[in-house]
Amino acid sequence: MKFGMGTLDDMNHLKNKRIRFVADLLQDQFGLALVCLENVVRGTKCGAVRHKLILTP
Q: pTM of the full predicted structure?
């Protein structure tokens, strides 16, 4: 605050806090779960192709 201009911003005031709704939290968790599922499926598919259990096109 140079020259006494402006106001201080209270970082602990509720207007400066972002409230995360339940839907946002669930969306994040579902996104992480889908990424994990994708990695497992890719790993299983690659392993099956490597062991000649699935024919490649």
A: 0.53
